[in-house]
Each structure stands twice: as C-alpha cells, then as structure tokens.
Amino acid sequence: MESQNNHDAKYAEAQKKVKEMKGFYIHLFVYIIVNLFIISRNFQQGDNLADIDNYWTAILWGVGVLVHAIGVFVPNFILGKDWEDRKTRELMDKYK
C-alpha cells in the first residue's frame, strides 16, 4: 500500500513539474511573438533598429523570462532542496 502512495506522490509531483514547464513555454512563446511584433512595428515606422530604445521591452521582459526559467528548471538554485525543512528544525530547536 505504501508503494502505491509513494507512486501517487511521485506522479503528482511529476504532473506539477509538467504544468510548471508548460507555463514557462507559454511565457516564452508569448515573449517571442510580442517582441517580434514590437520590433517589426518599429522597423515599419522607420525607427533605427540599432537604437537601444527599441529593445527595452525585450530586455526587461527577457530578464523576467530568465528568472522564470531558473524557477522552473533550477528550483533549488538559491535555497536548496531541503532548506525549508532545515530552517523549520532550526527554529524549533531555537524555541525549545
């Protein structure tokens, strides 16, 4: 029975990960489409494509996409996998 519970927990975790990845890919797709539209519109209006002002949206939004990617594909980047458990135990020991 415990094996089934373990399997169900792993399945739920995998399902959650797939949803996170799907959310990232949708975010990336929208980022590419919108920024291609903005840049092409600027080009059609005769703006100089070498002007950095044409790319601020892409640059700043790109930072957001990068942070999203790190959150999805490198979830233990900053705090580590067991940080929450370790911190809880540390605080419990401190308040004993």
What is the helix fraction of residues, given as a range?
Answer: over 70%
Gyration radius from CA atoms, angstroms: 21 Å
Our count of helices gives 3
Mean pLDDT: 86
Q: What is the H-and-E element order?
A: HHH
Q: Strand share of the residues?
A: under 5%
Helix and strand composition category: mainly alpha
Can you tell me the number of structural domains? 1
Number of extended strands: 0
Which term fits the overall shape? Answer: elongated
* Largest sheet data: none
Give the low-confidence spans. Answer: none
Query: In angstroms, what separates the terminal alpha carbons?
Result: 36 Å
Commentary on this structure:
There is one protein chain. This protein has 96 residues and is mostly helical. It has one domain. It has 3 helices and no strands. It has helices spanning 2-44, 56-73, 83-94.
Distinctive features:
96 residues; 0% strand; elongated; mainly alpha
What can be said about this structure in brief?
Helix content is 76%, strand content 0%. With 96 residues, it is an all-alpha fold.
List the helices and strands and how they pair.
Elements: H1 2-44, H2 56-73, H3 83-94
